[in-house]
Amino acid sequence: MNLTSTHQRFYQIAIYISGFFLFMEWLRPLEIIGEFNNVSIFFIYAAFCFFISFIQLNWVVSVPLKLLGLIFIIDGLYIGERIFSSNWFTIIYDQILYNIQVIQGQQWWQMTPMFRSMLFLVLLWLMSYLLFYWFIVAKRMLVFVLLTIIYVTVVDTFTIYEGKWAIIRTFTLAMISLGLSHFYKEMEKEEISFKSNSASFIWLIPLAGMIIFSLFIGYSSPKLTPQWPDPVPYLTSGNPGAGPGGGAGGPVQKVGYGENDSRLGGGFVQDDTPVFQAFAQEEQYWRIESKDTYTGKGWEDTLDGEKSAVSPDDLEFETFTDQVETEESSTYLNFTAEANFNKLVYPYGARSIEQLPNNTILELHSNTGEIDTIRDGSMTQVEEYLLEYDAPSFEYNELREADSEDPEEIREQYTQLPDNLPARVGNLAEQIIEEEDNRYDQAKAVEAYFAANGFEYSTEDVEVPEENEDYVDQFLFETKMGYCDNFSTSMVVLLRSQGIPARWVKGFTGGETTGGTETIDGEDLNVYEVTSGNAHSWVEVYFPDQGWVPFEPTQGFSNNTDFYLDVESDNDSDPETEEENEESSRADEEDPANPNQQAEEEGAESEEDNSAAGGDGSSSLVPLWITSGILLLGAAVLYFTRFRWLAAYHDRKLKNNPNRKTFEQAFLFLLKLLEKRDLKRRSHETLRDFSRKVDARYQSNDMRQLTTYYERLLYRNEIDQKQMGKVTELWENLIKKALS
Amino acid sequence: MSNQAFLYHPKISEVLKNINRVMIGKDEEALLSVVALLAKGHVLLEDVPGVGKTMLVRTLAKSLDCDFKRIQFTPDLLPSDVTGVSIYNPKTLEFEFRAGPILGNIVLADEINRTSPKTQSALLEGMEETNITVDGEAVPLKSPFFVMATQNPIEYEGTYPLPEAQLDRFLLKLKMGYPTATQEMEMLARTSGSHPIHEVKAVISREELTELQKEVESVYVDSTVHRYIVDLVTGTRTHEGVYLGVSPRGSIALMKAAKAYAFVQDRDYVLPDDVKFLAEYVLSHRIILTSESKFEGAVPEQVISEVLSNITVPVQRNVSE
User: Domain residues for A677?
Assistant: First the structure.
């Protein structure tokens, strides 16, 4: 290897390495913004692929090597079986089959982590190939550098990723790689060769100086603050939050918990002020109160009279009966200074409260479940308390089999509707539930109605009903757009119109986990932060045997209550109930999160605090990214390798069917390929003149010979079939030389 | 010549070898002369005296087993000196035709521009037709018939430049040029003994030559090449420095010459390469430059090469772009 090529090799390696580190800048944010726990493995695999690409092994060697690497990673991360054992292959096969079905069904969010990782590794593989081509073969760094900078800035802007150092690193790497590749291209163009090693490195001094200088200037110079408002709040303001607080105000309010719900409607702005922190087993509804009377404009509590002092040891309030399975648990709540409501916030099944400040009296409104906290004669906010509760789990079959004999008082209070409710509301409700024969499925049908009929979640531009308009009627038939209040009120009204007792409940959703855990009474609890934005309203439906069961009609939210299917009771049941069970288990699957609505709301949900919906939403983005990324990359790889596969294509055609047309196509393709290799035939040049140039470059006689055959075809319109073997051979030789 | 690598037609190869034995460094001119001969055209050599014009023609004539005639044109030369004259024979009491030098196979017309137009036209008529008219009677010319005319570019006093209309009777116009120093030394070495021309033997008979000329006519010219020729000729007509472009006769001449050139290379079809190579020789004496471009120092050869560099060579036929 002579000196010049040693230098070129050095430059190549340096360019390639800086390119690799640029690529690493793409992977780095994944650890923070994505659900990647093992980013270092991806780093290593990327490095491995880059290395293999660089040493330019024959694909027969390199492809299996990269594939092996991929398999080892997948094996190490996800598969417990011994590698390459028959079980191992079964797992892989099942996984791939399953995920392909999922992809065909466009249910991206259901892809398994293993398959996602696999796709991601394939993506890295393709990237290594593509970037090798970009950096070493095409020597074009600029596009990738620009893309990297754009990527870092976008990720910095829209996610929690802090791109300050990333942008500095990217800039430095960009300068180095651009500078070096420029030198490299100049060296090639001017055919510069260095007498000694030191001479070539003198070149690098000004480059290094320039980089350090501009880094210094860039780092130390004052930076403008953003010249436009941060786009993130604007973009996420369409984010689902919760019902507005004081309803009667103007059309735009601030989200949060409020007491007056007599006039609902109007949009509101998002507010992420933390209200309280909760240590809890899992996400659950934080209930405050329910309301019973629908006025046509909003909710009022007409039974507000019955108040009674309760002891902290027994809250005396139950929303469900003893028949319901429960699990003992405790939770600790700590309110922020921003919170100002003088009521208890409690989970379903709250039994007793501890660590209340002295002199605090609890007053329970037995109808609504509202528990006022009173100290020294006036309502005050309690900063923190510990709650013991029995978390309920409702059994599907029991709910389905429950009879509909409601106690008189329940029916009276909770099927109330205003007299002027338009008849079409009732008609609609009848239609929705007509196929269902039990209360649970009827309630489920109403709950699912909104998602199935294109109702949209929105906190902006939500109409306030006119004087002679009904709030529910307007939402159901005209706007079809709103937030939790619209959905929950509508569900209650629809159910009531069919004589099913239901009530409207207010409180908070489960909040966002901070990732921390705390131990209380030997129980490990997750820490959730609940903000004003988590204020929410939902529905409780009455079942005579079970009591009040929560339902969640709002688009993009999911029911935090636990439902289960008692499988053991199936064993001795008759075929009819079995069938029913199948149905119910299907319902069960659909229950936790309604997939279609997830997909539609993916953008909004990433900051959504609402339990499973939020989690699923962000993870459903990843496969979408990966798929579109892979598609894009696939297209890019196809484009950048077009000469290779086109060569294979023409070769095949030429061999299978050697005739005038295939030969001509193949020859013209060769001309194009040569043009790509800086051997362009100028239009006034004859083929013969051109062939001399080509042969001079490749030190052979092939082009001249091939041209002779082609001339015969072109200017004599004749083709010698006997010579086609020779023609193909010459053509292949030239293609090989041009591609290498 | 740049394409030495190509094979020549075996017969032609013999002729060229013969010429090469006598002439040094004149391969291209020799080849082009043979091309003109095979294409049944004539050659105008424009160069100073003493560079070997006559020697070239004589060697060619000898190699071909043909009559060689030479006419030295002078201002007082009469047409009958070219065509021949009828003389009264007292014995037979009849006029007898004494053939002039034009009735040879290969005729060297030296310094054609020094004679009067009348005499020039006597030669040019013969070149165009296959016969001449003497005393009102048509006398057929010999076959093959090949004229190589020379003209002296430096002496303008007392010359009668050939009119443009007549210049295009010549298929090719060549320039001999001086040999290089080594070539000239080699030449001196060779001519120190007996002149090599005496050793030249005929390699092609007259009949064979006629046969070859027929074969040339059957060389295939594809429509793609036709298109190329037409593009080229049209290019000379639209070039801004040209007052009068190449006539359609020029297109035909270019094609004929290209056929002969292809044949010489032992190929039965014409390539754009052939056309491109011959364009300068076939076309440059067929265009008239504008006074402006002449004033700017342009020469026809330069214009032709400009036109060539603007014409696209066809490289595909079955596959559309």
Answer: 642-739
Interchain pair B269, A683: CB under 8 A = no
The answer to whether residue A711 neighbours chain B at the CB level (below 8 Å) is: yes
B203 and B303, same domain (yes or no): no
For residue B65, pLDDT over 50 is answered with yes
Average pLDDT over residues A415-422: 84
pLDDT (0 to 100) of residue A623: 62
| CA distance, residue B309 to nearest chain A CA (Å) | 5
Does B51 lie in the same domain as B78?
yes
- Angstrom distance (rounded) from CA A581 to CA A589: 12
Q: Give B136's pLDDT tier (boundaries 50, 70, 90).
A: confident
By CA distance, what is B224's nearest residue in A? Answer: A715
CATH code for the domain in which residue B35 is found: 3.40.50.300
The whole-angstrom distance between A185's CA and the closest CA on chain B is 30
Residue A146's Cβ-side half-sphere holds a number of Cα atoms within 13 Å equal to 4
B273 chain-A contacts, CB cut-off 8 A: 686, 688-689
Residue A660: list chain B partners with CB under 8 A.
318
Confidence of residue A194 (pLDDT cuts 50, 70, 90): low
> Are B296 and B224 within one domain?
yes
Q: Is residue A649 predicted with pLDDT exceeding 60?
A: yes
Q: Strand runs (DSSP E) across chain B, as ranges? A: 43-46, 68-72, 84-89, 94-99, 106-110, 131-134, 137-140, 146-151, 172-174, 242-244, 288-289
Three-class secondary structure assignment of A205-240: HHHHHHHHHHHHHHHHCCCCCCCCCCHHHHHHCCCC
Same domain? B240 vs B112? no
CB contact under 8 A, A714 and B224: yes
Do the domain assignments include residue A350?
Answer: yes
B271 closest CB neighbour out of A684, A711, A713 = A711
Residue B317, in any domain of the structure: no
> A668 CB near a chain B CB, below 8 Å?
yes
Rg (CA), chain A: 35
Residues A182 and A283 in one domain: no
Q: Among B269, B309, B316, whose Cβ lies nearest the Cβ of A664?
A: B316
* Phi-psi group of A507: left, alpha or beta (phi > 0 → left; psi -120 to 50 → alpha; rest → beta): left
Average pLDDT over residues B258-285: 92
Task: Flag whether pLDDT at A582 surpasses 60.
Answer: no
Which residues in chain B touch residue A683, judged by CB atoms under 8 angstroms apart? 312-313
Query: What pLDDT does B1 receive?
Result: 38
Rounded to an integer, the average pLDDT of B269-295 is: 91
pLDDT at B220: 92
User: Which of A660, A684, A687 shows the shortest C-beta gap to B310?
Assistant: A684
Total number of domains in chain B: 2
Q: Are residues A212 and A270 in the same domain?
A: no
**Structural domain span for residue B273:** 218-308
Asked whether residue B83 falls in the same domain as residue B152, the answer is yes
Same domain, A323 and A419: yes
Residue A661 in contact with partner chain B when CB distance is under 8 A: yes
Question: At which of B179, B212, B245 does a domain end?
Answer: B212
Average of per-residue pLDDT values in chain A? 77
Backbone angles phi, psi at A327, to 5 degrees: -135, 130
Question: Are B312 and A684 inside 8 Å of each other by CB?
Answer: yes
- 3-class DSSP assignment, residue A432: helix
Write the residue in B273, B314, B317 that is nearest to A688 by C-beta. Answer: B273
For residues A502 and A439, the answer to whether their CB atoms sit within 8 Å is no
